[in-house]
């Protein structure tokens, strides 16, 4: 065999070599890649079906708020799907490396160096994953909860939980904005809708008001609110009057509180404020503090004696 013939044989292998290359290298790589993509889509489809079923059960039920178990199930499904997708791509990557004929033992040393580099460079990611794991297992909050999160650096984030994964929590605030918070940055989580909530209504009144009369009016407002067919579904018990909460120079503040279903404290608070304003207006009681008005020409408070010059 001449040199030219040998070079052609090396450059253009025979049909047997091409078949071996296809069946031992190219075909397994293509099959594992396609299988990984299909498995990823199946996991996303299955998780979406399960979450839709949970949401449908809530919408078809008579309950006004999600149960704690439903919130936890929603969060756990998101985590399971995330872990499953990561495992699928890791397995596919391993099989592709094997199909390429790369010895795994030869990758131990490079993998150690890369792992150490990632360990230093991805400390925050690892912190987020660990924080997310404990956040979900401890059921600090779940899908649909109204939370206030204190973050590192002194900032805060408040809104309704729309998604919880091992790495991030997504909130939607009252302005409709979606806030993505890494779980490792959460210093304190305040759940405003776990088990039950409390609506707090402060009523500012002038210091000259008859507190006994106001107290009786507020008790009547609480009784009527608890007897209302719609409000009774939101309230866990009758609203109670706590009395005078604080005293300022020209006004006193009375407080009424009510235990409500999770997440319904804002609606109950608005309803109670409306009822209180109407009741006080009917009784001729103003919620604005009394202030003296001064005539600039005489510098005399109206209703009083002329100021000394």
UniProtKB/TrEMBL annotation:
Q: Name one GO cellular component term.
A: plasma membrane
Record-annotated membrane-spanning stretches: 26-43, 75-92, 98-120
Entry membrane topology: Multi-pass membrane protein
Q: Does the keyword Protein biosynthesis apply?
A: no
Q: What is its main location?
A: membrane
Q: Is-annotated flag, keyword Flavoprotein? A: no
Recite the UniProt keywords alphabetically. Cell membrane, Membrane, Transmembrane, Transmembrane helix
Q: Where is it localised? A: Cell membrane
Q: Where is the Mechanosensitive ion channel MscS C-terminal domain?
A: 200-286
* Region feature Disordered, mapped onto this chain: 288-309
Signal peptide as annotated in the record: none
List, for all copies, the residue spans of the domain called Mechanosensitive ion channel MscS: 125-193
**Molecular function as annotated in GO:** mechanosensitive monoatomic ion channel activity
Stated family: Belongs to the MscS (TC 1.A.23) family.
Protein name as it appears in the record? MscS Mechanosensitive ion channel
What is the source species?
Answer: Tsukamurella paurometabola (strain ATCC 8368 / DSM 20162 / CCUG 35730 / CIP 100753 / JCM 10117 / KCTC 9821 / NBRC 16120 / NCIMB 702349 / NCTC 13040)
